[in-house]
């Protein structure tokens, strides 16, 4: 792994620079990252920006040219990452990217905004912390010159990392700060022979008395940074990729500390593949396989637990963001420690990076998301080839997981997807062959349709990227755009009839009611929604409408009235599906979350009146409450 990702993770240690989760009403909106304009006049969008309703940054394709500030810019693909300064300020000010005056027990900004003010726990003394120079360096912050702001810049140049004194996120604070801790992370006792997360013990389900996790609460809890040195994490390279899942049963994590068990139980019972924006999960990957691998690797474990803690906090009226922040920071610190040891990457390394990227997507930090995406690409291409990645359900899911980030970020940023085309075509060939070999298996048909749509999206990202860089002539762009339009329409018309079996259409709605004057669609119309096992067909239809919207809006020629009507029809179809999924009582958990990007695009193409405006705001308020 290049030093780029090491510096990137170091800048994130201490959870510095994350946007506030569930930002309090009345506080200023999070500043979105500005994009460079795309060549060619896009169709005018109905609203000022996509970020007007959502946490998405404005896609380049929908941006009108803007005057650029005279400051250093990152190159396409974000090879340069803005490193953020962190000190000993409270977590809330760090996450809001504002300066903290460090007044205890409540800083001035949190007091005025009536926000929860939580400071990092004090680090152990040098004589007992056990933090070596390598660990300290891992927690230091490197500041990008482009992130400096006049007199606020008190950091040395990032290139002088070797000469910098460590700047720990968890510096000593007054005793009053420690009393605010409500759910500390309990360190795992350093094992003498077999790691707490060793494969042998997990496989047998037994443990020795000497391996019992420590719960010595009265002796004081350790900060996330201190935990990185007190535990002995199992390297990702110790996990081997099985050819197929041996069991979809619930993994045994009874040997873990109680707090981790609570969140893993919550994950297993409440989180689905829809929370990860995955259309299908035939092998129960996220509930069983991912959690089973997480209990064998600490970095992945704390990433998964952090994701569960994030959702648990949102559902709990008394939830505190501190638990999520600690688990997240713990995962980042462990991953950084592993990377600094220059050990061989393996499946758990890639899964940890992908899980952290998913968290960044929920938080709306697209710069951090793209940093993880770049690292995931490096690990994925080191571990697999386009052929070998299709040999296991685990590696196939990782490819789908990464491929979604790659294509989505490429389209949003108007640059080409990073993964070569061969990876997408090989995936489609595999699923097509399996669907032909097992025609009764609905899972293969769904995967084949999804893979083809992902390939089309990848081709779109390449076209938009070339158009943005003016690498193709207008005639070539028009010809390629028309070709993709035909392929996109052919995808919907060429569906396997089994994916649209009318026997699975939802025709009854127990919560049927008279329409409200403010409704813009009727959610109780039969024929909109498929029930399981064809619920994925509903998701794919909605994604198709959103991709068609993005594609047709990028036609070079001026849109005719007929084209504008067609765009509005796609937008209404998305709104119809989202509304129906919301009101159908049997919709799977997380199914609205996977539709969030589709609704975000649709919001740009509905009429600009108060009725539609309020409907969209209501839907995104609902989605914000889901994470």
From TrEMBL:
Entries under PROSITE patterns matching the protein? ZN2_CY6_FUNGAL_1, ZN2_CY6_FUNGAL_2
Q: Would the keyword Transcription regulation be found if you checked this record's keyword annotation?
A: yes
Kindly give the Pfam families that the UniProt entry links to this protein: Fungal_trans_2, Zn_clus
Taxonomic classification, please? Answer: Eukaryota, Fungi, Dikarya, Ascomycota, Pezizomycotina
Quick one: a GO cellular component term?
Answer: nucleus
* Biased composition regions of type Polar residues, renumbered to the chain: 191-207, 220-232
Protein name as it appears in the record: Zn(2)-C6 fungal-type domain-containing protein
Q: Where in the cell is it found?
A: Nucleus
Q: Which UniProt keywords apply?
A: DNA-binding, Nucleus, Transcription, Transcription regulation, Zinc
Q: Which GO terms describe its biological process?
A: positive regulation of transcription by RNA polymerase II
Which residues fall in a compositionally biased region of kind Low complexity? 136-149
Q: Which residues form the Zn(2)-C6 fungal-type domain?
A: 89-119
Kindly give the SUPFAM superfamilies that the UniProt entry links to this protein: Zn2/Cys6 DNA-binding domain (SSF57701)
Map out region (Disordered) in residue numbers: 117-245
Q: Spell out the molecular function terms from Gene Ontology.
A: DNA-binding transcription factor activity, RNA polymerase II-specific; transcription cis-regulatory region binding; zinc ion binding
Please report the organism this UniProt entry assigns to the protein: Apodospora peruviana
Alphabetized SMART domains for the sequence: GAL4 (SM00066)
Q: Where is the composition biased (Basic and acidic residues)?
A: 208-219
């Amino acid at each position: 792994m290049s030093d780029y990702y090491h510096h990137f993770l170091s800048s994130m240690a201490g959870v510095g620079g994350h946007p506030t989760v569930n930002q309090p009403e009345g506080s200023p909106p999070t500043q979105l990252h500005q994009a460079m304009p795309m060549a060619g006049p896009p169709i005018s969008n109905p609203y000022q920006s996509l970020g007007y309703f959502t946490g998405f940054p404005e896609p380049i394709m929908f941006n009108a040219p803007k005057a650029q500030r005279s400051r250093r810019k990152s190159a396409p693909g974000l090879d340069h990452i803005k490193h953020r300064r962190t000190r000993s300020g409270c977590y809330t000010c760090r996450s809001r990217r504002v300066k903290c005056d460090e007044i205890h027990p409540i800083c001035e900004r949190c007091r005025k905004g009536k926000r929860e003010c939580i400071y990092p726990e004090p680090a152990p003394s040098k004589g007992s912390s056990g933090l070596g120079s390598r660990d300290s360096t891992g927690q230091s912050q490197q500041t990008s010159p482009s992130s400096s702001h006049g007199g606020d810049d008190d950091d040395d140049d990032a290139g002088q990392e070797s000469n910098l004194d460590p700047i720990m996120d968890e510096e000593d604070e007054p005793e009053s700060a420690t009393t605010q801790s409500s759910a500390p992370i309990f360190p795992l006792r350093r094992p003498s022979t077999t790691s707490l997360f060793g494969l042998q013990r997990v496989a047998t389900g037994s443990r020795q008395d000497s391996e019992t996790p420590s719960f010595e609460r009265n002796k004081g809890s350790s900060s996330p940074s201190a935990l990185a040195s007190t535990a002995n994490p199992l390297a990702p390279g110790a996990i081997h990729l099985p050819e197929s899942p041996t069991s979809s049963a619930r993994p045994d994590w009874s040997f873990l500390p109680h707090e981790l068990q609570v969140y893993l139980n919550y994950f297993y019972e409440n989180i689905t593949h829809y929370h990860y924006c995955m259309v299908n999960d035939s092998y129960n990957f996220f509930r069983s396989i991912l959690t089973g691998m997480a209990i064998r690797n600490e970095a992945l474990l704390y990433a998964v637990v952090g994701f569960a803690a994030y959702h648990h906090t949102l559902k709990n009226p008394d939830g505190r963001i501190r638990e999520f922040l600690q688990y997240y920071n713990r995962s980042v610190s462990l991953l950084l420690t592993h990377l600094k040891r220059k050990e061989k990457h393996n499946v758990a390394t890639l899964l940890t990076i992908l899980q952290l990227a998913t968290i960044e997507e929920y938080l709306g930090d697209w710069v951090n998301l793209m940093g993880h995406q770049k690292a995931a690409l490096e690990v994925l291409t080191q571990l697999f080839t386009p052929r070998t990645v299709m040999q296991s359900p685990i590696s196939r899911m990782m490819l789908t997981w990464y491929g979604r980030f790659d294509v989505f970020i490429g389209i949003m940023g108007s640059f080409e997807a990073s993964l070569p085309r061969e990876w997408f075509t090989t995936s489609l060939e595999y699923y097509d062959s399996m669907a032909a070999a097992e025609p009764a298996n609905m899972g293969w048909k769904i995967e084949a349709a999804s893979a083809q749509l992902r390939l089309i999206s990848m081709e779109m990202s390449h076209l938009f990227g070339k158009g943005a860089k003016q690498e193709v002539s207008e005639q070539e762009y028009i010809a390629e755009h028309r070709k993709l339009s035909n392929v996109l329409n052919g995808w919907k018309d060429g569906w396997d009839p089994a994916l649209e079996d009318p026997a699975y259409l939802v025709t009854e709605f127990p919560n049927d009611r008279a329409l409200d004057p403010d409704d813009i669609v009727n959610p109780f119309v039969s024929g909109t929604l498929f029930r399981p096992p064809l619920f994925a067909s509903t998701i794919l239809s909605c994604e198709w409408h959103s991709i068609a919207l993005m594609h047709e809006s990028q036609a070079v020629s001026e849109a005719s009235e007929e084209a504008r009507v067609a765009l509005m029809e796609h937008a209404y179809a998305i709104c119809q599906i989202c509304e129906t999924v919301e009101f159908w009582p049997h919709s799977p958990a997380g199914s609205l979350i996977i539709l969030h990007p589709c609704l975000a695009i649709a919001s740009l193409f509905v009429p600009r009146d108060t009725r539609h405006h309020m409907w969209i705001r209501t839907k995104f308020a609902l989605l914000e409450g889901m994470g």
